Amino acid sequence: MFHDLKYALRILAKSPGFTLIAVVTLALGLGANTALYGWVRSLLLAPLPGVARPGRVVAIETRTPDRARIDSSWADYTDLRDQASSFDGLIAFQQRHVSLHEKDSVRRLFALFVSGNYFDVLGVRPALGRTFLPEEGRVPGGHPVAVIGFGFWGSHFGFDPQVVGKVLRINERELTVVGVASPQFKGTINGLNTEVYIPLALNPLIGGEVGGDRARLEGNRTNRWLDIMGRLKPGADLRQAQAELDTLAAGLAKAFPDSNQGLSFIVEPVTKATYGSSAALSGVVLALFAAVGLVLLIACSNVANLLLVRATVRRREIAVRLALGASRARLVRLLVTESAVLSLLGAAAGLLIVPAVNGLLAGIVPNSAAMPIDLQPPLDARVFVFGFALALATGILFGLAPALQSSHPDVEQALRDGTPGGGSARQGLRRVLVVAQVALAVVLLAATGLFTKSLQNARKIDPGFDPSHVLLTGFDFPQSLDRKHVVPFFRDLLARTSAIPGVVAASYGNHVPLWLEGGDWEEIRVDGYTPGPNENMKIDLTLTWPGYFSVMKMPLVEGRDFTERDDAERAPVAIVNQTFASRYLAGKAAVGSRIWINDKDTLVVGVVRNARYRRLTEEPRPFLYAPQLQWLPPGTALHVRLSPDASEAAVAARIREEVAAIDPRVATVSASLEEVTSTAVIPQRLGAKLFGAVGALALLIASIGVYGLMAYSVSRRRREIGVRMALGAQASQVGRLVLKEGVTLAALGLGMGLLAALAVARLVRSLLVEVSPADPMIFAAVILLLGGAALLACWLPARRAARLNPVEALRSE
Description:
Blueprint: H1 2-13, H2 16-45, E1 57-63, E2 69-70, E3 72-73, H3 74-83, E4 87-102, E5 105-114, H4 118-122, E6 126-129, E7 145-148, H5 150-157, E8 167-170, E9 173-181, E10 196-199, H6 203-206, E11 224-232, H7 238-255, H8 257-260, E12 264-269, H9 278-313, H10 315-323, H11 328-350, H12 354-364, H13 381-406, H14 411-417, H15 424-460, E13 470-476, H16 486-498, E14 503-509, E15 520-526, E16 538-544, H17 548-552, E17 556-559, E18 573-577, H18 578-584, E19 594-597, E20 600-608, E21 623-627, E22 637-642, H19 648-662, E23 667-672, H20 673-677, H21 682-716, H22 718-726, H23 731-763, H24 776-802, H25 806-812
Helix pairs in contact: 1-11, 2-9, 2-11, 2-12, 2-13, 9-13, 9-15, 9-21, 10-14, 11-13, 15-21, 15-23, 15-24, 16-19, 21-23, 21-24, 22-25, 23-24
């Protein structure tokens, strides 16, 4: 075997041109596959790095009667934790921004408030110090401790080994650092990098809500704010756990009908949970992984064709080896070793493009100041092992067929004349490979067209508001700030902000449409409306200030906006969207109707145009707006519409200055609304950009394959062409003869590719936006593009054949 390897390296070195082309071709396919495998592993195979036996960790979500997913209450969590026997443990957590107070500055951190058993159940070992003790998650306010993330340890403390015992002043509470999480562990929300972990028991004290109270941690089952995960016991599976949770849900519905009637629990792999990036991106990443797999097949078929051509040139050498007694198996092993070496060299070269592919993928995801998005998969040993294992497998597979074809030449003829010939079987294999390349290229180009048009359509969708030139600023309030001082703070800041040059209008809203986090769900009742069986009567609600609809350019179609008079001293009012009015208030005037929101008698004072709230592709859904001056706690974000020539950075800096002038303890973070809402088109943008690159690569490789086959065919048929022309054939006839052969193969590949593309397009239907999987314009464009490229690839050898001098052709033979 060592001798074969040495010989393979020597023979490849003697043909540097052939080796370079083959290695570069394979490097593109193998490098892209290795990079995408890292993303597939990060999103689907190992979404919780740093967790012990992650395959046993599952997500548990609450499900409404209409099968929508919502968060869970603390009371439900404790019941499941104490009663479910299918799990070794259940954990609860909530994501939240907090303020880190330092000498003269305030910094925003992304925190997870977690149950005391969080690290123990996950099996996460600390890099330094310890994790939480069980009692630190049970006694409200009793244990002011924190565990910091590994990245935060480096960025903030410079990896100080004495960090354990230091004090962090978070939301004006002093927390002692007891440990540092392991470097691999980023938290339990895939795609976000947690900076600090805080016991859930401290949430009412430092959770960022002014006036928070212990009711959030105790018996309030209607307050659903937690995410839950669990570790299955050895021997337990998802079906067994689901059956047990169904029984527990039925018991809770019977014991607490007001809060739990119709609710159930669903247990599923972490990758299917509604929070985190796995559910949002897994579909398009899998589609891309399949696409780059097709590119690798195209590359392999191209290299296989090169090997067949090269074997034809080496026909005399192979015949000599056979004549001297070499067995066919020995020759096959030698030739397959050469192809495996080629593939491994391609894999090594492909590793150089993995960081570039990862950077391209990560660059498509918006870098939001509002969330610590971290979607860069680690380039660990498993990724590299996958790349080289794939290279070895493909090297053997694409080298085997040429080796088998090349190892039984006509020995007598090869030794007699040594001419580079080739049997019909070998020619047939080359044609099959070219047809396959064209067919696969059709599939990839069709996918490129579908995703590109899907992205264009997504960008054209009217979200119901205008995100351009809108700046958002979020706040973290100190816990010592009295609730009665919050409204004066907002009013003062609103007046100061409105006076900043470049500000057109300003208001507040507590949730941002199309952002990663959803809004509040509130139970409603409507006089005269009878809910259907299992109909969910919890409706999304956003709390706003007067002028919010003007800032967002969401026109009122009926009634009025909120005013300063709509405060806690007045009767509750609300504004509904068009879908709410048509569904629940049909047949009567919407303005002036009365609805009950959480049993509060509320007057409808206006109807606003529909908008998109959670996804760009969602069906119209009922939605509520209420004046924040009537609802507390007052967590909210400042929405500022700027003039087109205003600088967002300059205005954001001025807002920070004004906040500091009012209360320097308040932390802020600013981001443009366009940046925040751009997350809504990440799957389409990812698909369009990456499929575009993959499709272009497939087109190039397939065109080279067609050209290579036809060019070789012309060189092999020089004698035949010379005879034809000597007997009177015209140059145009010879050109058409060669062109016909190539066009026939291309047409066959196009036909097979179209059928395959139609089937594949239906598999990615869910990722498309207002595009038919059989869009005739896209498929017509694919035929024209690939057909034109194939025609050009055939025309060049045909032109060469037509210009052949018959005397020279016959003399050379």
